[in-house]
UniProtKB/TrEMBL annotation:
Source organism of this protein record: Stylophora pistillata (Smooth cauliflower coral)
Name by which UniProt lists this protein: Bifunctional protein GlmU
PPC domain span: 18-153
InterPro entries: PPC_dom
Top-level taxon of origin: Eukaryota
């Protein structure tokens, strides 16, 4: 049966009437590692339900996990090298975070995947972080998928 979102005890989603959103804007400088910086930022600020609202900038490298590239390499990890524009960076920043990025090379070719780390700023990375003030995000092992997945709770 399809989940229509009416189950208030469902751990995958929760919305609170009148919830508030806080926003934080940061600019990373050349050489800084984006994922580590963002995870440290939300830890220092004690944000309970943080996520990336927007990111523009460029990187010199990144480590990405591809989605089931083949049966022999279901979680192929690639090292992206060279100057790339950040076309997209999205995801949640709870616990160890769950970020996906799309990066564009000098010819406009785009590659994307799950950000493992090693995403070093080339010129800048301008990131806006949102936080749902009445919610708490955690990552817990999901029996169905076997992976740590997002769990959303009210504060």
């Amino acid at each position: 049966m399809a989940d229509d979102g009416n189950d208030k005890d469902n751990k995958r989603f929760k919305s609170e009437p009148g919830s508030t959103l806080s926003c934080y804007a940061v600019r990373l400088k050349p050489g800084q590692e984006i994922k580590d910086f963002l995870l440290n930022f939300v830890k220092v600020k004690k944000l309970g339900a943080p996520f990336v609202l927007s990111c523009v900038g460029s990187v010199t490298q990144a480590t990405l996990r591809l989605a089931n590239a083949s049966i022999d390499t279901p979680n192929e990890i690639i090292e992206v090298k060279g100057r790339h524009e950040i076309v997209s960076l999205v995801g949640t920043l709870a616990d160890e975070g769950h970020l996906h990025a799309s990066l564009s090379d000098k010819d406009g070719n785009v590659i994307g995947g799950h950000v493992m780390g090693n995403m070093k700023v080339f010129t800048t990375a301008e990131v806006v972080i949102g936080n749902c003030d009445t919610l708490l995000f955690t990552r817990e092992t999901d029996d169905e998928t076997g992976f740590d997945e997002l769990v959303v709770r009210g504060k």
